[in-house]
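Archive maintenance. Older records in this collection stored only the sequence; we are now back-filling the structure field for every entry so that each record is complete. The fields below show one back-filled record exactly as it appears after the update. Entries are processed alphabetically, and Amidase is next in the queue.

ARCHIVE ENTRY
Title: Amidase
Organism field: Bordetella genomosp. 7
Length field: 411
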Amino acid sequence: MTSSSNSLPFSDTVGAWVPHGHFTVSPTGSGALDGLNFAAKDLFDVAGYCTGAGNPAWLDTHAPAAGHSALVARLLAAGATLHGKTLTDELAYSIHGANIHYGTPLNTRAPDRVTGGSSSGSAAAAAARLVDFALGTDTGGSTRVPSSYCGLWGLRTTHGRLSATGVVPLSPRFDTMTWMAADAHVFERVGSVLLNDEAGRTWRGAVLLTDALAQADAVFAPLAHKVAQALERDAGLRVERAPASSHHLDTWRQTYITASAHDAWQTHRDWIASARPVFDRAIQGRWDAASRVTQGDAAQAYAMQAVLRDEVRGLLGADRIGILPSASSIAIARDADPASVDAIRASTFRITAIAGLAGLPQVNIPYIGSDGMPAGISLLGPAGSDLALIRLACAAGRSTAALGTSAQAAV
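Back-filled structure field:
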């Protein structure tokens, strides 16, 4: 059963929902998610409602969805209740978390700072516990970054692991379907539903990725070492220190920016030309740059992606994990100047591009750093290890007192 009203069944105290996203969809079945409620980033189709993709022009030029997106349908069938659509940065082309049309959601863990984006509304709703979990997407860091900023369990799935059917794309070459939760047990329950056909995996080692750690502020290092110690002590893994790549991580960043921009422009150029949408100035600048990426530039970037992908996949093999920061900084101040935002964005992309270019899963473990602010440490796994990686991350989180974990949260 579907209901629609001007208000959600709870108060939206954090500005997480888009104006056209105030509705509830009841479960279509019963299962592992009975009793849980969730929200969906406004890229996911919900039958009978328009998907807005963060921009009013998209909303105005697209009809209501004929059916649910694949993930929404699976979650409803497993017993979860959907509570509407949450805010996203425009066409998901940002990791900042502000939207000139719909506002900037509140980061309840750090009210003077942004949530991060582009899954900004989902992060805000989950952090405030207005829903049990929230769907997001991650192309260049759009779930990993807000999870780190807001103290949430979140991830990037193996590229192609979960269906993108019924989801507005940004860059299909890199887009992944994701979710966030404030509670580790809930986070893992969702994973058990969406990744329920994955085989078990034995872990044999871990690598503390020194080049990624060097890109992050000092608050992340002790947290990363805490995770490494827990993996050695509790999981019996031998932890080494090594760089993710023989190439400087700015090469990874530049490769990702070029490859994803070309892919995004091929995806959306016709709509941009016909609808002439108004974008935030920074996002407009990215579309302008994307339009100038030549086929030759793209071919070089795709070739370099293959080299870098093979390098990090070779480092991990089938049974090792990487340990790295989820972002380069704590959440950015809401009034930060554009130059500072751009500098942090660049250093963060040097980190997030590792999983992005390699198509690998990455799970954020939420902590509070020595400065009292949320700061996430991630586990990076081999392709297809998503559920095993989630379980290892949750175990490490319980062992190290991560946010949203307790002895009672253990499966």
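Update note: The chain has twelve helices and twelve strands. The chain has two domains: 37-194, 206-400.
Entry marked complete.
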